[in-house]
Structures are given as structure tokens and as C-alpha cells.
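Here comes my example:
=====
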Amino acid sequence: MTNGYHGKILKIDLSNKKTEEIPINEEDVKKYFMGSGLSAKILSHWKDIENIEPLSPQSQLIFMAGLFTGTTIPASSKLSVCAKSPLTGIWNEATVGGHWPATFKFTGFDGMIITGKSEKPVYLCITEEKIEIRDASHLWAKDTYITGEILAKELGDDFKICTIGPSGENLTFFASIIFDPPISRVAARGGIGAVMGSKNLKAIAVKGKKIPNIANKELLKELLKAQIPKIKEFTVGLTNFGTSGGVETVEMYGDLPIKNWQLGSWKEGAKKIAGQAMQPLYLDRHYSCFSCPIRCAKIYKVPERNLYGHGPEYETIGMLGSNCLNDNPLDLIEANELCNKFGMDTISCGHLVSFAIEAFERGIITEKETGGLKLEWGGKSVVELVKMIGKREHIGDILALGVRRAALTIGKNAQELAVEVKGLEIPGHDPRAHVGMSLNYATAVRGGCHLEALTYFLDRGIPVEDLGYTVAPDSHRSDDKPQIVVNMQNYLSCFNPLGLCKFLFIGRVGPKIIAQWLNAVCGFDFTMDDVMRTGERLVNLKRMFDVRLGISRKDDVLPPRMFAGAKPDGKAKGVLADLGNMLYAYYNIRKWDEFGIPTKEKLRELGIP
């Protein structure tokens, strides 16, 4: 009997409409966990990956629930969607919460590998009893909200739905997958929705009641009885306002993206679009993902613009708000909802909007490219540009390629305005305000990703006592950051494979508690060191995936605006990271060679073939 998981993966070939079940080896679960961990093991065995395009029928799209997903572990609602990214051409994992991931696991499957391409649009209907590939011609070209409504009427409200929108269908390189619309939990980054669209797969509906076994229910009950109250205490700010409640604090640190990353301070604007200002006006209700005591999601209702859905999170506020000098809450909420309906990553989309406005301001693009629209900083241009990108009209057709390709296509030194790492637009945390993020962005396996280290949490005084971090480090100091980034990447790389929300970091859940949960749920005999070693293994495994695709030291760089353009004002005024020395120390700690490639000795030590 397996504990914590069911022991099988569903494989679907859309080209020939065949399905099969693949067993999961317990040793693989111990070695990689599940979620993005087991997915990395599967994709690393993908033959000829160097020559397979991300949007080709031969590409593999993996949905994999976390090891704890579907259990009573708090905030264990996550599922990872993994593939070779069309945006970056390297490793991608897009992780999502809500209720779809647990419901999928209740069908009796832990994961799903989708290959091939259907001749016509289809959707999947998966229950405990059967797997169906159904016609989706009536859903094609419809936005995610309408698709969710139609499928709810066809199948019943007890099914959970995930779907792509028009952006996934038209292969926008940063298209996302929307889960549980209009609540809109999102697998957002790296163009994962375009991979789904390239297979003519519109949606996946799931229903089930197969709850995974727990090895020691009494032990788990006792552990959670002691731990959940502490988690709720430390995350009360998220409970009250969600991530949008941190906007003014982030601005105070000089961390907020402002005017396409050109400025360091925007106090009055930040105040207008923070959760404390918007929530009293537009909050309809609070929302919680499966098995989560934090309840951070905020559902907004704006009758005057006929808007209803998930309110803007911090990253959305940063990228479609402050980075575009958009201090109009209504325009911000509308732009967020448009992204969710089209199925687009708000981080990438927001950066494309700010990039386009600055390019227009500098004469790099003109009204000829924008269809006559005069681009200006502020909400009106933001909303119109989001529509253009979603429909791939005018300049939106080029912007839909992502900022790296768009800048190369436009030319005229547009690359100077593009803020990305390895092709992935960086999120709303400035690496000049928290220099540890410079090193994390440069080395993160999917490109410009903040979630792989979250060192700015440490800088703000959130401790990880298990790792010895009890006092906030100097956020502008570079020399101590390599060891911190290594430790934090190893620790946090376990979260997606386990299905854990990273807000548990704020809830003071360290690797010791994670080891206790593993032992109670799965019957393992893990220590904190075992958890950290698994995290290190996954970092190296994913790095080797990227190495096969040509990634090395030459790619571990920051965009020009971040390494050579200091902020003119704010708390981070004049700060630039010493990335060269940090990288040198980081490679040595990791036992990677001078080109940033894991050595054979390190791979053997970690048990990586």
C-alpha cells in the first residue's frame, strides 16, 4: 500500500487517442518527491530533447500533484505543470493551487503526461471510473470564464475545470492555464498554456473521491494540532489582505518595480493600489485553497465595469500597476481580469506593457505599430495594450513573443529596455533592493524567477531557524549571499514537489517540520538533512536539464538595467550587486565547474545518473 500518493500516472497520447497507466516507483518518490520533482526525473529521460520544439506534437506536458496534495497538511494544494518552455526553451514548472489539484489527485492518479496533438480541439474529462477525450469545438476561441461556465453546465458543478483562453490557442509565448475560473488560480509562467494550446487541448475537467492513505493518522493529527495555530498567527497579514497588502512595504524597501524599473520611489501611487485601499471598495469575499488555513485569496466585484474574479495579487499590482505608473485601481483590476480571461501571465504581460510604453516614449516604436494608439504611462494604455496582446493585434502580435524576442524583433536598442533572465521576464522584486535576488535570478533554473530562493523574505526579518537564519541580513551586502542563496534554493525546491504553498515560509515551516510531515504521511524515516539533500538533488537535476539545452555561465547574467543602472532614488538608491564574485563563490559552494555546470563528482554524490 502506498501512503500519501496512489502510485500511478496517466499517460494520454492525443494524436492516437490512446491512454495508459504508468506505475510510480517508491524509490523515485523518496528521491524526487512528486510535483515538479518527479516531473524533472521524467523529462530528464526525454530522448533527443535538444531537437524537440516546445510546441511540437512530440513535446511532453506533465501535470503532477504534490506528494502532500489531497491530504490534511496545511496549504498543500499545489500541482506543477512542467514542460520545455516555449518562452525560454529550457526547464519550466508552473505551479498552481486552488481546488483542482486535490480533485485531480482524488481521481486516483498522481500525475498525467500528455503528448501528441489532436486533429481537432478537445477537452479531457477524468473521473475515477473513466478517461474521456471529448470534442471542444464549441469551446474554442472562448475566454476562460465562458469556458468554465459552459463546462459547469454540461458536466455539473462537482467537476473542477482548468482551461486555456484565446492566448493559449494563438500560442502567445507567455500563455497561462486558468484553474477554477473565475476564481482563477493560475499556472502562469513560461508559456505553459501555449504548450497546452499547441496540442489542441482546450480544457481538463476532473472529479473524484479517492483520498490518499496516511501512514500515521494519529501522529499527523498531533503534529498539525500544534503547528496550524502558529502558521495562522504568522500569516495573519496574508489572511487579511493577501499579497496585495504588502505593496507599500515593498515600496519602502526600494523593491517595487516602477516605470519599467527606472525609478526607486513611488509612495503615493503605491498607496492607491495597495490592498488596504482597494479591498474596502471591491472585496466580495475571501477564498481559501484546498486544506489551507491562510485564506489569502481575495475575490473582487466591480459592478461599474462588470468585473468579477480574483483580485490583483502583489506581482500583478507591481507589473501592471507601478511598473506602468498605473495608479488607477479600476484599470488595474480590469487589466488583471483581461489577463485571466485571455489566459496570460500577468508578470510577463505587465512587463511587455511597460516595455512598449517606454519604447514608444523613446521613439523606438510609433503609432504605425500600435494601430494609431498613443502609448502613455498610466491605466488607459495598460488596458488597451493587454487587449492588443491577448488578440495578437498590431504591436501586440510582436509583444506576444515575450520581451526577449520582441526586443530582438523591434531592434533599435530595444534590448536595453528588456528586463529578463534566460528569456523569462523577472517578477516584481528588484534585485538592486535585495542583492541576493540578483544571484537567485541569475541561477534560477527556469530563468527570472523569485520563488526559487525568496531571499527577500529573510532580508525583511522572516527567520528560518532550522538553517540558522534568525537575524535579517543586510539586503545590500553581496559577500554573504552565495551561501544564503544555495541554502534557500535547496530548501524551497522541495515545496513544489511536495505540493506546499511557499507562504508556509512566512508561517515558519522549516525543513524539520517538513521531515515530520513526510514521516507521518508517507511512513518515511526522513531527517531535516534528508529534506535539504533532496532539494539539492532537484536543483542539480533541473540545472542538468538546462545544460543539455545549452545553458551555462554565459546565461547566468542580469539584464543591463539591473547590473549597470542603479536606482536614482528610494532606499535602494545607488545599489548594484557584485554578481561576478557572487557567482564565483556560488559555483564553488555548489561544486559546479567554472562554466556553471555540475561536476560528475557532485552528480554521483547526489545519485543523479
User: Anything to note?
Assistant: The chain is about 40% helix and 15% strand. The chain has a mean pLDDT of 97.
